[in-house]
From TrEMBL:
Keyword Calcium appears in the UniProt entry: no
Function: Catalyzes the transfer of a phosphate group to glutamate to form L-glutamate 5-phosphate.
EC number: 2.7.2.11
Protein known as: Glutamate 5-kinase
GO terms classed as biological process: L-proline biosynthetic process
Top-level taxon of origin: Bacteria
Catalytic activities: L-glutamate + ATP = L-glutamyl 5-phosphate + ADP
Length: 364
């Protein structure tokens, strides 16, 4: 990240459960402490840092596992996170306090980012914290986020936070040096050092997940590509390496990591939100060939009723809908200007205001 020794104004650092937890499941207090030392160094160097920290469930499990009897998986996650998050944040609080730095907890859910107003509320909260010199420590609210309401994992959350907060860089710390071009267990595999915008790494990733985390390398790679496409430089690095954050961000040391180069043109704030709201799409518009070609060729093209052949699902005005090609391939998402009944009524008609204005259209 810092081969050019450039200084970042604002970065998001995501710390995975595997970094914060020892092999036996207990919190790795030495590692947490070392990471806080480095974040304090960045803070003093004038870099605004937002932490996205996993580890609540693992922390709670280490306290309670022996004490609770048989319990279902969802309840266990809720229980462990409720207890573990307190312990985790207490630890962060004490460690930052040694440097005279205040930190604060931001617990969120996927749904809390689903409407523009809630999204702006979240952003405003973190802007206020940063303006007051407080380090936000974000985690999913695992006590109430269950099943389909959950983020894939905190990698997904960190990508959304980085886009929402206009961060210049996102550092994802895991227990591995980066994405390997083969099985990480194979000595012949090497870390992929640079990833150009749009390059697909899925062929290299072993979809098996780790024992403590949720999404694994698949989500990291997908989220990193997306964030890089939004103009955010992304680095996947090993959080267990001593001095990793200092090396990546403050010094010139060439540390092993996978770096996703940022695409040159950052998307607008509204488009970032629309892109991040994909999971909330309430329905879909299927385009004819002419409309599909128009939006792929021009960034200023809106979606007009005359170019839509079908309206799928039920939605309200301002909901997010998916855009489909004539064959049903997803092309992107957008904010719809009317409800589904009106869209249905107007199908194929000319001279109406766009169903989705180009400013509210995000193409993949
Ligand atoms: N090609 C690959 N390169 C690196 N790691 C991989 C690859 N394929 C699968 N993995 C696995 O992904 C794991 C990291 O993801 P995850 O367990 O979710 O980490 P975290 O808890 O830090 O979020 C690694 O420990 C590794 O076993
Ligand atoms: N919110 C959960 C973390 C879930 C998660 O995404 O974990 P990880 O894949 O290790 O980043 C927790 O705090 O335990």
């Amino acid at each position: 990240m810092n081969c050019e020794s450039k200084k970042y104004r604002r970065i998001v650092i995501k710390i995975g459960s595997n970094v914060l937890t020892r092999e036996d499941g207990r919190p790795d207090t030495t590692r947490i402490s070392a990471l806080v030392d480095q974040v304090a160094g960045l803070y003093r160097a004038g870099v605004e840092v937002i932490l996205v920290s996993s580890g609540a469930v693992a922390s709670g499990r280490s306290i309670l596992e022996q004490k609770v009897g048989r319990i279902d998986t969802v309840s266990a996650r809720q229980l462990f996170s409720a207890v573990g998050q307190v312990k985790l944040l207490n630890r962060y609080y004490d460690l930052f306090n040694e440097y005279g730095i205040a930190c604060g907890q931001v617990l969120t859910t996927k749904e809390s980012l689903s409407t523009r107003r809630q999204y702006l509320n979240q952003r405003n909260c973190m802007e206020a914290m940063l303006a007051a010199g407080v380090v936000p420590i974000v985690n999913e609210n695992d006590t109430i986020s269950v099943t389909e309401l959950m983020f894939t994992d905190n990698d997904e959350l960190s990508g959304l936070v980085a886009a929402m907060m206009d961060a210049e860089a996102l550092v994802i710390l895991s227990n591995i040096d980066g994405i390997y071009d083969g099985s990480p267990a194979d000595p012949a595999s090497q870390v992929i050092r640079r990833v150009a915008p749009g390059r697909d790494l899925s062929q290299y990733i072993d979809t098996a997940r780790s024992s403590r985390g949720r999404g694994g390398m698949t989500t990291k790679s997908r989220i990193s590509s997306r964030a890089a496409g939004e103009g955010i430089e992304v680095v996947i690095a090993n959080g267990r390496r001593d001095g990793i954050l200092t090396d990546l961000i403050l010094t010139n040391r060439d540390v092993v990591c996978t770096r996703f180069e940022a695409a040159p043109r950052p998307a607008s704030g509204v488009k970032k939100w629309i892109a991040s709201s994909e999971g909330f799409a309430k329905g879909a518009l299927r385009l004819d060939a002419g409309a599909a070609a128009a939006i792929s060729q021009s960034k200023a093209a809106s979606i007009l009723a005359v170019g839509v052949t079908a309206v799928e699902g039920e939605f309200e005005r301002d909901d997010i809908v998916r855009i489909l090609s004539p064959e049903g391939t997803p092309l992107g998402v957008g904010r719809i200007s009317c409800d589904s009944a009106t869209a249905q009524r107007n199908l194929g008609r000319k001279g109406l205001k766009p169903l989705i204005h180009c400013d509210y259209l995000y193409l993949e």
